[in-house]
Amino acid sequence: FLNHAAIKSEGDVKPDGCTAKPWKLCSVQEVEDLKSLIRILPLWSSSFFLGTTIGVQSSMSILQALAMDRHVGPHFQIPAGSILVFSMISTALFLTLFDKFLFPLWKKLTAKSLTPLQRIGVGHVLSALVMGVSALVESKRLKVAKSNNLDQGSNIVPMSVLWLVPQLALVGISEAFHFPGQVAFYYQEFLTTLKNMATAMISVIVGVAFYLTTALIGVVRRTTNWLPGNINKGRLDNVYWVLVVGGVLNFGYYVTCAWLYKYQNLEGAEHSDSPSDE
C-alpha cells in the first residue's frame, strides 16, 4: 500500500523534472524510511512504560528520602534530591563493567554476542525487579513509621536513607542495559538516512515517559488514598506493586514484539542471536 506513494501519475512531475506536489509524490527512499519506522514502532512503544516506572521511582524516592534519616555520620546529611546520584553512579559503573567484562565473557562462553533486543529485554526484567524491591523497602519504612507512631504526623522515620540505595543501584543497572541496547538496535536496523535518529528515539521515550509519570501520579492521587500529603500515612508500596504487575505485562508485550520482529539489517543479524530468543 505504501509503495503507491512512489508511483508517478500524470501531473506529479513538472516539465523541468521537479516534483509538482511533494506531499503527494514520495521518493522510494522516503517510502522505505517510513516502512522502517513502522516496523520498529511496536518495540519502541514498549519502552514508554519502562520509562514511566523509572520516572515514578525517581520522584517517589525523593519523597521517601525527605521522610527518612539522611544523616551519614555525625556531621553530614545527604540532600534529598541528591539521592538519585546513586542511580547515575550505578549506570556509569555498570556500563563500563558490561563493555569491558560481561559482554566479552558472554561472547566467549556462548560464541555469540548479546543482541540489542536481549539487552533491552534484560532492562525490562530489571525494571520490574526494581519496582518489587522498592515496594518491599517502602513496606518496611511504613512499618517503622507506624511502630513509632509517626504515621499521624510528618516526622522523620528512624530509618536510614541508605535503604534506598539498592533500588537506585538496580535502576542504574537497568538503564545500562536498556538505553544503550535501544540505541544499538535503532542504529543497526534503521536505514542509512535514519541512523542519526537513533538517539532522538530515546529522547522522545524519556520526554513522553515523564509526562506519563505526571499523569499516572495524578490519577493515583485522585482515585486512591495511596499518595496523601503525608507520605507516612500513604501506601506508596501499593503503587510500586501495581507497577510490578504492569511491568510484567509490558515485558510480555515486548517479548511478543521481539519474537515477531524480522531483522531488516541481515548483516547485523548474522552477528547476533535471533530475536525469538527473547
Instruction: State the helicity in percent bands.
Output: 55-70%
CATH third-level topology: Growth Hormone, Chain: A
Instruction: Briefly note the structural class of the backbone.
Output: mainly alpha
Q: Do you know the CATH architecture? A: Up-down Bundle
Strand numbers in spatial order across the main sheet:
1-2
Compute the number of strand runs. 2
Number of helices: 8
Low-confidence stretches: 273-278
How far apart are the termini?
A: 31 Å
Topology pattern, helix = H, strand = E: HHEHHEHHHH
Question: What is the CATH H-level superfamily?
Answer: MFS general substrate transporter like domains
Biggest sheet details: 2 strands, parallel
Net shape:
globular
Mean pLDDT: 84
Number of domains: 1
Radius of gyration from the alpha-carbon trace, in angstroms = 23 Å
What is the top-level CATH class? Mainly Alpha
Task: Please give a quick description of this structure.
The chain crosses the membrane at residues 43-66, 78-98, 118-137, 157-177, 197-219, 239-261. This protein is an all-alpha fold and 278 residues long.
